[in-house]
Design brief:
Blueprint: H1 4-9, H2 19-32, E1 40-46, E2 49-55, E3 64-69, E4 72-77, E5 97-102, E6 107-115, E7 118-125
Antiparallel strand pairs: 1-2, 2-7, 3-4, 4-5, 6-7
């Protein structure tokens, strides 16, 4: 949970230019805290590789949209087809949803797969060569 103290920390004069990042994170946090469907797991596969798994029983590939917008992973779904026959009991939720996840610096979505009702989205930290630490040889 994000506390008021955490946000106040970024009002410190040493954090110049962080206000837009704090606003973005606050917006994503507020939106995400009101989302409860579908259930998900976030798994750390390796140090810089994560997998977001969403339980999407009843959804097909054509029903799900995965996008990245301004550092935010957005996963939307809506079942488009009608069922054949009359349901005696409907226990599998297939309602429209939107799930958002804030991505850190250099985090990139590198793949997505829907298999057996589980959507797996791979997110990797890919640091550009010019941003990696370098050793300066002393003459």
């Amino acid at each position: 949970m994000v506390t008021t103290y955490t946000w106040d920390l970024f009002k410190d004069p040493f954090f110049i230019g962080f206000n837009s990042m704090v606003d973005r994170l606050n917006s994503v946090h507020t939106t995400a805290s009101h989302q409860s469907y579908p259930p998900y797991n976030i798994v750390m596969v390796e140090d810089d590789i994560f997998r977001v798994d969403l339980a999407l029983a009843g959804f097909d590939k054509k029903d799900v949209n995965v996008t990245v917008d301004n550092g935010t992973l957005v996963i939307k779904g809506e079942v488009s087809g009608e069922e054949t026959g009359e349901a005696v009991h409907k226990g599998i939720a297939a309602r429209k949803f939107t799930r958002t996840f804030a991505l850190g610096e250099y985090m990139e979505v590198t793949g997505a797969e829907l298999k057996n009702g589980l959507l797996s989205v791979t997110v990797e930290k890919i640091v550009p060569e010019d941003k990696k630490p370098k050793t300066i040889k002393i003459k």
